[in-house]
Amino acid sequence: MSDIFEKIPGIGSEAKRPPCRVAYTLNNTQPVSCTIIGDQPLFYMDFEYNAEDESEFFSADISILESELRTLEEEIAAYDKFSAKGGVSTEERVAEFFSNLDSIIKPSKKENSEEELLSEITAILSQSRNIDAHLEAAKKHGVKISFSTQVEKAFYDRRAGLILINPNTDKTDMLLLCIRELRRHWQHRQGALIHPLTFQPDNAVLVNRAQIADLAVAMVRGAWELQLSGHKEAWDRLEISPMGDIARAFAREAYIDFRTINNGEACAAAFEAWFLSERCRQQDKTLIQQMLADYQGYVFDMETAAQTITPALISALGSLPFGKNYLSAHTNTIMNDPIFTDVRDRSNANFLWFIKFERSFKETEQELQTGGDPTGRDFFHGSTPQQDQRHVPQRQSAEIISLFGSQPRKASASGDGAKRVGQRSADIVYLSRLPGDI
Question: Residue 225: how many CB atoms within 10 A of its CB?
Answer without folding.
Answer: 21
